[in-house]
Amino acid sequence: ETSRIRTGTGVVTIETDGFAPRLPGSDPQYLVGVSLDDVALDRTWLTGAEVRSARSIRLRLADGPSNWAESSRPPSLSSTDQPPTTANPPTPDPS
Question: How many whole angstroms separate alpha carbon 27 and alpha carbon 24?
């Protein structure tokens, strides 16, 4: 399967290897590998800058899980020193 996404800097082609259509209620497929511009990644996330500058993203799917990128965690947007902030913090009650 192939899809294309137009970004502000060009077009990214997203391809899948191993895709098999599923019926509702059937077992899912698992993501077992990702390549960005033909370079294999050992992590499960992409940055916005990577997506905008990419020419191709290839997703490998399988019928069962693998140990691909199991030691990689996405970066946190919050600090461990402070709680995460919200876009709309609660306003104090005026009473």
Answer: 9
CA 78, CA 84: separation in Å to the nearest integer?
5
DSSP of 12-70: EEEEEES-----TTSPPPEEEEEEETTEEESSS---HHHHHH-SEEEEEEESS---TTT
Phi, psi (rounded to 5 degrees) for 51:
-65, -45
Q: What is the pLDDT of residues 22-79, one digit of tens each?
A: 899 999 999 999 999 999 999 999 988 999 999 999 999 999 999 999 888 888 776 5
pTM recorded for the entire structure:
0.73
Q: Which residue has the tokens 């020193």?
A: 81
Compute the distance between CA of residue 3 and CA of residue 59 in angstroms, rounded to an integer.
Answer: 11
